[in-house]
Write a structure and sequence with these properties.
Layout: H1 2-13, H2 18-29, H3 31-41, H4 47-57, H5 70-88, H6 92-105, H7 109-117
Length: about 120
Amino acid sequence: MYEQLVRERLVLTANMPVKKLHAAAVEKVRASYQSKAVDIILPMLSEEETAIFKRGRNATGNTVPKSSNPIEYRRATALETLFGYLYLTENRKRMLELFDIIWYNTVSEQEAGDKIEA
């Protein structure tokens, strides 16, 4: 669900070729980016949301992508679990609230590079 929100937001707000849209989406859904997003929203989660987050983080799985480390990957998985939970429980308002907080409080490496070059 998180990736879908990223792609939707990019399509609605970014005027760029498809290849660049895809690259921007990949940047915002990779584990290191999501792990940073967790730092932003974790203090804002309710007890129930925190419990869901922890269940997702502690889910077993031995494979971690080469582009990530195990800690970032587990945190990213937990974030995806939380967004999936909010979607399935039809709590779209809360899901969008957390997504907006992440969206407006993180800057991707690509965006940072663009600002430096500008």
